[in-house]
Amino acid sequence: MSTETIEPLEPLDPKTLDCYECGACGYVYEPAKGDNGSKIASGTAFTDIASDWRCPVCGARKERFSNIGPIGSPSGFKENLGFGLGVNTLTPGQKNLLIFGALAVGFLFFLSLYGLN
Hints:
Blueprint: E1 19-22, E2 28-29, E3 65-69, H1 92-112
């Protein structure tokens, strides 16, 4: 009999767990939220869900889901994150802010032309 002590596992941070998207309807399983309809607790990784679990929206099998990475991670391939003047490392929310902010500033410049006489 071994006298080794087993150290407790670190609790998983749901924000670092990968999200999965249904290929049929676009539903995104987020580990931070879980699935209340199927009584899956928040913080449960997609790989730990039973194989007979179905999409709560369309009923698609678990095999139809594809890994889309953690929430708030930069979109695109990891190999390409160093290119694009640093824009590739932005999250989708940051990209939206950059694009629509630039459009708003451009619109304000356009309106300022009416002040010229």
